Please model this.
Amino acid sequence: MRKRTSAIILFFTVFCVVILSGCFQAAQEPTFDLIIKDGLVYDGTTDKPRVTDIGIKGDKISAIGKFSCQATKIIDARGFIVTPGFIDVHSRTDFILKGKGIWRFMAYIKPAINGNHNYLYQGVTSIITGNDGNGYTNTAKWLNWVDSLKFGVNVYHLAPVGAICDELFSGKEPQPLDENQRHTLKKRVLKEMENGAIGLSFDLSRNPDQLLDKEALTDIAGSINHYGGVVSMILRNSTGALDSAGNPAFVNSLKEVTEISRRAQTPLEISCLRLKTPWKNLNYEQISSIIRDARQAGIDVTADQTPYDYGFDILTSFLPPEYVANYEIKKEYTTAEGKNTVIKAVNRLFTTTAPENFSIISYPANKSYEGKNIRQIATFERKSTAQCYWEMASNGSPPIVAVPDSSGHFAKLVMRSPIVFTASEGISYVKDSAIPHPSYWGAFARKIRKYALEDKIVNLNDAIRSMTALPAEKFKLAGRGKITVGSFADIAIINIDTFRDKASFLHPEQYAEGVEYLIVNGILSIDRGKITGKKGGKALKRI
Model:
């Protein structure tokens, strides 16, 4: 009996030593590289937040729970919330603007090279590039370049179909693809998927994507199913204008992309889900029912949204697509007769949204117009508002304008949907731009401060999920978006009382505040509210 008792005691002694050895090692051999203590953890799931500890080893989360272990660094997170690093599904960080036949980087690639401080101060640890059918066409070269520059955030890439079309068929007037061209495009798209792209992007409102009919779009989208990729699409028309049959163009465009997704059996991400003009002809239920019915039919459709009442766009994008090519009015509409046709379209536009809603943000051709709306310009020039619109739109270098998104009402309703992700849609730095968009510096902080905490449009847990687990699941970003054992250590530690966006339309280049600590792949990028200069971001390929 004594021998049996002694054996049992010995067994439990050895068991306890083995179990506890993970936490009670010598100080010179710490169990973890970093421990986050006593933070209120929102893990990216629907679970309620809980106070707990997180142990990090290398670039992974190795333990979650209450423990007393050694670590190289211990962060006291009492009074702070702890979340997965936020994911910007629509960053435009590699966006390229085509003007006068010249492809050029937008100037906001510079902050990316400098370490993505605009993102880090918002708690963003991963971004997706190649948006809107635009950007780097060679996935392998782009990701290799990102790695060589040591970005501060993780970078995933969509293959931009429009830019690829321009590259393959350059020098030709934009026109619908023939069978051979479509085959060439599909072959190139599949190559980009092989090189690590996580999906494709299209902008159906602009050439050359605008020229792809439903059959071609279905064919191209369906070709990537083998890879498990996502198709991201900007709607053909995001205005409340009526078509020739009296139907709102926005509704028709929404039906088009969901039908393409259904036929191609490819997951769909609707980019920039917003109304460019007030929605006299629309109602939210009409729009939401299209998405709801699509999901009930088994279509994997989601959307992204920037939490601002104003969006930026090129002036010509508000005209019917048939009048515009490559951001410029088509030649056939620059004649006297063509001019009258476009002016009639402008006057129809002004029946749905007033000229004063179009504020000039960047216009190198006449910088005195910057900061003024079309009504003010027309009064000064003693011309009609439609004439002024025409002159700016047709000069070969149309201005970039700020336009309210349906007075913010539509945006708030969309935000409540559990399938709408948060994005910066950061067309923020434009060369010679007087007033870049504040979303690049404040989108994620604004969503939480204004819409979750102040206006209570969404609850805090849902807001965090829209930035973390949900987009990670949609785009298959393995190991991102959740705080779980084995996940990558992308973690934000936030003072929720002070977390806020500071960027405004008048003063956009202002970093958010309230992120006390930020960890990217186990690297401490923000320590006690200050950038450390250590870059943990990686260029990541589809797995």
